[in-house]
Amino acid sequence: MNNYIMELKLKIMKKNMNAFIALSVFIFGLINSSIFAQGLDDYKYNNTFHPTENTVSNTIQFNGYTNHWQDIYREWYHYGNLFKIGTPNVEYTIAQSKVDIAEDLKLPGLSLQEGFLNGLLKEQYVSLDQPSLQKLEEVIKQGNALIFVSPESEVGKKLSEKLPGDNFWREKTKSHQYNAKDFNEIKAFYLVNGKQKLFVVFSYSEKSG
């Protein structure tokens, strides 16, 4: 009886093994035929040229003296060992140009807001030198005004509150002129109220500048 049961188990195991082998051969053949059945139409081109992704950039800034005073702001771009180019940093270079022009005008430290001179040429205005707050209030009720004032005065302190509190471009450009002995900060800007404009020239003393 035991021998019969043992033979039966062996037959079942052999049958299962044969079935497993047959299934494995079938699956392998299916995969193999699928691989070799791929034709030319299944191939595609993978684009590997992505210059902006693979370009390395470096920022170069120099503010100082070589054989002359200069302020340089450049961006260098490298692509492998094939390509290298340097271009000016446009924003920094324009900001530095404004500082250079002020120096050429013998007014080192002048910061002129865009549209200031154009506004003076187009508008009618009353000019005031170091006006009191009361006098200024009276004048601007009538129309435009151009005032020359110290930022340390009562009027100057009130107008200073209207300006941005940071010196973004001065901190970023680090122009060599900022450390010059004759540098005296002068800000020329304008404030707008509807159609009326208040043109302001701030002159900082050397100690406060």
Characterization of the model:
This protein is α/β, with parallel strands linked by helices and 209 residues long. It folds into two domains: 2-42; 54-203, no CATH class. Helices cover 39% and strands 26% of the residues. The protein is built from seven helices and eight strands, in the order ααβββαβαβαβααββ. It has helices spanning 2-36, 51-54, 90-104, 116-122, 133-140, 154-160, 168-173, and strands at residues 56-65, 69-79, 83-88, 110-112, 126-129, 145-149, 186-193, 196-203. A five-stranded mixed β-sheet has the order 4-7-8-6-5, sandwiched between helices. A three-stranded antiparallel β-sheet has the order 1-2-3. Strand 5 (126-129), helix 5 (133-140) and strand 6 (145-149) form a beta-alpha-beta unit. The longest helix has 35 residues, at 2-36. The protein is elongated, with a radius of gyration of 39 Å.
Write the layout of secondary structure elements.
Layout (H helix, E strand, L loop, with lengths): L1 H35 L14 H4 L1 E10 L3 E11 L3 E6 L1 H15 L5 E3 L3 H7 L3 E4 L3 H8 L4 E5 L4 H7 L7 H6 L12 E8 L2 E8 L6
Parallel strand pairs: 4-7, 5-6, 6-8
Antiparallel strand pairs: 1-2, 2-3, 7-8
Number of domains: 2
Overall mean pLDDT: 84
| Percent helix range | 25-40%
Elements, N to C (H/E): HHEEEHEHEHEHHEE
Number of helices: 7
What structural category do the secondary elements indicate? Answer: alpha/beta
Q: Choose one word for the global shape.
A: elongated
* Proportion of residues in extended strands: 25-35%
Q: Calculate the terminal CA-CA distance, rounded to whole Å.
A: 113 Å
| Number of E-state strands | 8
Largest sheet, in brief, is: 5 strands, mixed
Rg result: 39 Å
Strands in their spatial order, largest beta sheet: 4-7-8-6-5
Low-confidence stretches: none
